[in-house]
Design a protein that fits this description.
InterPro entries: Rossmann-like_a/b/a_fold, Universal_stress_UspA, UspA. The protein has 141 residues and is of the alpha/beta class. It is 45% helix and 22% strand. The radius of gyration is 15 Å and the shape is globular. The two termini are 27 Å apart.
Length: 141
């Protein structure tokens, strides 16, 4: 295994997936890890409020990157790259997996909001259905 994509939204389930990514990185000392955070693309009429949303999302991405680099994956820093993208999360995750030619995609089973949990991990399910690469879905506790 040479390249791994770990998609996170900062949720507890995503943190569990990050721990699994760390465990896998331990087993593959040459592997590179791409950590991906995707902001949901919003379709506001006339883009009202979009700048405030994007500013908050950029801050959220920076916070997630800091947490991942300093707490979860600190010993893998030289082998870790962080990416922030905007779009439909499941589609972007699959596109980045293709673009980066990864060997494995790791995602949490449920996201950070109640709507996502209601749809039984709609992003992780969509990634499972669309990805050309193997997908590891890590359950939250």
């Amino acid at each position: 295994m040479k390249r791994i994509l770990y998609a996170t939204d900062g949720s507890k389930s995503a943190q569990n997936a990050g721990q699994m990514a760390a465990d896998i990185m331990n087993g593959f000392p040459e592997a590179q890890l791409i950590v991906l955070y995707v902001s949901t693309e919003l379709a506001y009429p006339y883009n009202v409020g979009i700048e405030d949303y994007m500013e908050a999302e950029r801050a959220r991405a920076a916070e997630i990157e800091t947490n991942v680099r300093e707490e979860l994956l600190s010993k893998f820093s030289p082998r870790t790259e962080f990416r922030y993208e905007v779009g439909r999360p499941a589609l972007v995750i699959c596109e980045v997996a293709d673009e980066e030619d990864v060997d494995l995609v790791i995602v949490g089973s449920h996201g950070r909001n109640a709507i996502d949990r209601m749809f039984l991990g709609s992003v992780s399910n969509a990634v499972l259905q669309r990805s050309k690469q193997p997908v590891l879905v890590v359950k939250g506790v």
